[in-house]
Design goal:
Protein name: Amino acid permease
Keywords: Membrane, Transmembrane, Transmembrane helix, Transport
Pfam families: AA_permease_2, AA_permease_C
Membrane topology: Multi-pass membrane protein
Strand content: under 5%
Radius of gyration: 24 Å
Number of domains: 3
InterPro entries: AA/rel_permease1, CAT_C
Oligomer: single chain
């Protein structure tokens, strides 16, 4: 049992990770091309952060939280800022691809590295499926608006069409007219009704989602230079559109719409946490570019911080403009930016926004389709996945097999599946990655105390948490008791049985972790920023509900089966240890 635990926690030092990368590149002549500069990295970050969140999910978040949702963007940015600083330190220490997977390998060991790697594969894949489907919806709407409508059965997934058709039949049987049904139900009904059949199987598929995924995958496949130029161009276009929205929209803001500022209180603001956080996960993708940066130790930390600051300012200002232009309750629509301009009779601006949404979401898809293959590649290099995933194309200098697999993993589900809660599932995966990266910094800091080794490169600013964290926790408890005493009492009440108690489990876990970290901070003088990053991200995870937790844990359990069936035995560290013992 002791040997098993040692094997599962075997670590790869930063020196060993760099040595493996350099050795693999020299042997096979397959180094990735170092072409990305600071402006390219910032562009990648903005491309990933400003996408579906700003063009769609910001609407539902604003409808739930009112103008106060702007504070949620700030709070989420602070939580991401703590994480970004921790990412930046790792990126300057270990400038190789792999993102949080590589960082976990160096700090926690192999098992945790596998878990976070498997988590990142889910996060990137499901996130891209969601973006592809959302892109398809916008593209279809624009085509219909210019008179080039696409048949419904080619713009919708099979499950949505089937369920919508059955719902429509029930309502029609009750005497309702088809024109009186919700638009989405009408589209599903027509899609199923008009779809051709093959052996009794209705041929319904989201063709635009497939097409954009294939196109983006091809761009990523043929090279980083092509991906870089495309991302920079798309980012420039959507920043111009967002500035146009803010500038024009400011003239139509009515301050009366900002009262009340938080109509549904803190609960209403926090209801949009998954949608808002989904908008911020892009800076994680910057760290996957490490091996294609000209100067990763200098530029990666800067790019993460710059992208986060720029996007936070844009999100906060945009949230205030939207909620100032129309009453917040009207924003529960799929295209809030286009809607508010239609509402004030600026249809030309609404049309520009709709087209720019297509551009924005394509850039998100590009960055994440770029990032995911490099995580596959890093895991393959360590022996945890088959070697094919780390093969580099001799001409294009990209991990071509991993890129093709990523294309299939996104394209096929986007073509046929109905994914209604992918935002939450992607958010919980990202938050988990952020928690481990922040925790990894704490582990590395403790090691450096023991070995007296000084870290070179960017470092998270050290603030002693010995007294600061206990004081912050105490203040938080007092504020909760003062403003939400009834809710606190209800939370600790055991009435309602298991059905009620299970939903409290994530928050009980957060309370336990907070107590442990507060004690350790006092005893070990832990660095405050990584601790706050860990706790804020863990708290945001508790807001995502027990359903998403159960799905997330199921995915991780599946990953553990694959690890013990393949990765554990084929790990390069495992094989190296066997060679030494032999």
């Amino acid at each position: 049992m002791r040997n098993l635990f040692q094997n599962l926690t075997r670590r790869k030092s930063a020196t060993a990770l760099m040595a493996d990368y350099e050795r693999d590149g020299n042997i096979h002549g397959t180094d990735l091309i170092r072409t990305l500069r600071l402006k390219d990295l910032v562009s990648f970050g903005i491309a990933a952060i400003i996408g579906a969140g700003i063009f769609s999910t910001i609407g539902n978040a604003s409808a739930a939280g009112g103008p106060g949702v702007s504070l949620l963007f700030v709070f989420t940015a602070i939580a991401c800022g703590f994480s970004a600083l921790c990412y930046a330190q790792f990126a300057s220490t270990i400038p190789v691809s792999g993102s949080a997977y590589t960082y976990a390998y160096a700090s926690f060991g192999e098992l945790v590295a596998w878990i976070i790697g498997w988590d990142l594969l889910m996060e990137y894949a499901i996130g891209n499926i969601a973006v592809a489907i959302s892109w398809s919806d916008y593209f279809t709407a624009v085509m219909q608006g210019v008179g080039l409508g696409i048949p419904e059965f080619l713009t919708m997934d099979y499950l949505s069409a089937s369920r919508g058709y059955n719902t429509a039949l029930e309502l029609l049987a009750k005497g309702q007219a088809l024109s009186a049904l919700p638009v989405r139900t009408q589209e599903a009904y027509l899609a199923w009704l008009n779809a051709p059949s093959l052996g009794g199987f209705k041929l319904v598929a989201d063709l635009p989602a497939l097409s954009i995924t294939v196109l983006i995958t091809y761009l990523v496949y043929i090279g980083i230079k092509e991906s870089k130029r495309t991302a920079n161009f798309l980012v420039l276009l959507k920043l111009l559109v967002i500035l146009l929205v803010i500038t024009v929209g400011a003239f139509y803001v009515s301050p009366a719409n900002w009262t009340p500022f938080a109509p549904n209180g803190l609960a209403g603001i926090m209801k949009g946490v998954s949608a808002v956080f989904f908008a911020y996960i892009g800076f994680d993708a910057i760290s996957t570019t490490a091996e294609e940066c000209e100067n990763p130790q200098r530029d990666l930390p800067r790019a993460m911080i710059f992208a986060l600051i720029i996007c936070t300012v844009l999100y906060v200002v945009l949230a205030l403009v939207l909620t100032g232009m129309v009453p917040f309750k009207e924003l529960a629509v799929g295209d809030p930016l286009a809607y508010v301009f239609s509402r004030v009779n600026l249809d030309v601006i609404a049309g520009i926004v709709a087209v720019s949404a297509i551009i924005a979401m394509a850039s998100v898809l590009l960055v994440f389709q770029y990032g995911q293959p490099r995580i596959w590649m890093s895991m393959s290099r360590d022996g945890l996945l088959p070697g094919a995933f780390s093969r580099i194309h001799p001409k294009h200098k990209t991990p071509y097999f991993a890129t093709i697999v990523t294309g299939f993993v996104v394209a096929v589900p986007a073509l046929f599946m109905n994914l209604t809660e992918v935002t939450d599932l992607t958010s919980i995966g990202t938050l988990f990655a952020f928690v481990l990266v922040c925790g990894g910094i704490l582990v590395m800091e403790e090691k450096q105390k023991e070995t007296a080794v000084t870290h070179k490169g960017f470092r998270v600013p050290y603030i002693n948490g010995k007294y600061t964290l206990p004081l912050l926790v105490l203040v938080a408890i007092l504020l909760l008791l003062y403003y939400n005493e009834a809710e606190v009492a209800a939370f600790f009440s055991l009435s309602g049985g298991w059905e009620s108690f299970q939903h409290k489990l994530p928050l009980f876990g957060f309370i336990a972790v907070t107590a442990v970290l507060t004690t350790l901070s006092y005893q070990r003088s832990l660095s405050l920023i990584p601790v706050l990053g860990l706790l804020t991200n863990l708290y945001l995870m508790t807001e995502l509900g027990i359903t998403n937790w159960s799905r997330f844990l199921t995915w991780l359990a599946l990953g553990l089966l694959i690890y013990f069936a393949y990765g554990y035995r084929n790990s390069k560290l495992h094989n190296a240890e066997k060679t030494v013992k032999a």
